[in-house]
Amino acid sequence: MTRRISKYKRFVMMNPIIQFFKYIYLSLKVMLIVAGGHGGTRKNVN
C-alpha cells in the first residue's frame, strides 16, 4: 500500500466533528431531495 494519503486527508478522516458535520450535511441534502420530490419523480411511496 503506497502512502499517498495526505496528512490533511487523514486528519479529516480521523476527525469525528468533521464526520459529524458531513453526516448532517448529507442527511439534510437527502431530506431536501425527498421533500422536494413530491411533485413528479418520487421513488419511495409509503
Tell me about this structure.
Keywords: Membrane, Transmembrane, Transmembrane helix. The chain is mostly helical and 46 residues long. The chain contains two helices and no strands. It has a domain at 7-36.
Sum up the overall morphology in one term: elongated
Number of strands: 0
Distance between the termini: 45 Å
Number of helices: 2
Order of helices and strands: HH
The percent range for helix content is 55-70%
Biggest beta sheet summary: none
Poorly predicted spans = none
Q: How big is the Rg?
A: 17 Å
Strand content: under 5%
Average of per-residue pLDDT values: 80
Class by alpha and beta content: mainly alpha
Short synopsis of the structure:
Keywords: Membrane, Transmembrane, Transmembrane helix. The chain is an all-alpha fold.
